[in-house]
Amino acid sequence: MKEKTGNEEKARLAGIVDRDTLSHIRREKGEEEERSQAPLSFRVIRRLFRFAQPHRPLLMGTLAMVILRALQMPVLAWAVGAIVRGPIAQKDVPALVWWVAGFAAFALFTEVTFHYRVRWALQLGEVVIHDLREAMFRHWLRLTMGYFNTHAVGRLISRLTGDAENVRVGVQNVLFVSLVQAGQMIGCAAFMIWEDLTLFLVVLGMAPVVWLLNRFFRRRLSAAYRNQSDSFSRITATMAESVSGIRVTQSFSREGLNASQFRDLVQDHASINLVSARTSGTFLPLLELNGQLFLALLVVVGGWRALQPGTDMPLGSVIQFFFLAGLFFSPITVLGNMFNEALNSMAGAEKVFAVLDTVPDW
């Protein structure tokens, strides 16, 4: 039995087993391709937050900066409209100077907040991924030799490098940027409701369109990013096995065939990347197009309301509303990008936690 397993291993390293046979061997040895799970799993997110618990002061400081940053941007947009509607419309130069000075000071404060929001988010991501990689390595040391005989070295390297890196990006970028953008939309919505409920309902009419777009593209993007992650893992595993088995490969004179098989893997990976890029390249422009169409609709509705005799909505309020609406729509594209990265991060986190959940044979 050991001799048979050894021959299969040599054959796999030498590249003389076809893909169907190799797939069968891998299934017998527990090297199946990763099964897909829910793209966004709150269970996985909760487990990631456990690694942030030892760094609670840093986490709380980052969340405080996120909340502050989310509130600052709507206030800036409201202030621009207030300046136009107030001192500029009234031609009050001294008041305009004070308003502009206050606006500049608050804008400088927002930049300071942005600096610490980014800085602390990066620090938190680094310490979380440090602890996660250390936990993986400690867990590998506890596993028996049977685990390493049934898992390709390249796949293990991919878990510690590529998949863990995807998790780091998710912690540093996706989570906090998404919170800022979502908070910005909520703050702008509150100001718009205060300014004019009718115009806000026009903006709210975009919500079903965005929801349908997200629902339509979510499954496609999820499958595309999982395939992309699995393809890269296959390339890493093949590369590691080819280097470690180079003597066997050369002894069988299979360099050309191995190179051809590796070229096929690279071509498959390129095709998968093109599918991901094509899907994302369709999704994001559609989101932006919807934002521009609804801004045009706001021009018609807001202009009509401001020009009606006896209306209680002055032109300054329309201008202020457009600043808020523009800031309300701008996070849509960002959130679309964050959604793509979130899918990639979830795929990496699921594979990392699959390693940590592996029970030793003993």
Poorly predicted ranges: 1-38
The number of helical segments is 12
Assign a percent range to the helix content: over 70%
Order of helices and strands: HHHHHHHHHHHH
* Mean pLDDT score: 78
Tell me the fraction of residues in β-strands, as a range: under 5%
Based on secondary structure, the structural category is mainly alpha
Main sheet properties: none
Gap between N and C termini: 21 Å
From the alpha carbons, calculate the radius of gyration and give it in angstroms.
Answer: 27 Å
DSSP summary, beta strand count: 0
Mass-distribution shape? elongated
Describe the structure.
- The chain is mostly helical.
- It is built from 12 helices and no strands.
- The protein has helices at 2-14, 19-28, 42-52, 56-90, 93-142, 145-149, 153-195, 197-204, 207-244, 246-251, 255-307, 315-356.
- Helix 7 (153-195) runs antiparallel to helix 12 (315-356) and helix 9 packs antiparallel against helix 11.
- The longest helix has 53 residues, at 255-307.
- The radius of gyration is 27 Å and the shape is elongated.
- The protein starts with a helix and ends in a 6-residue tail after the last helix.
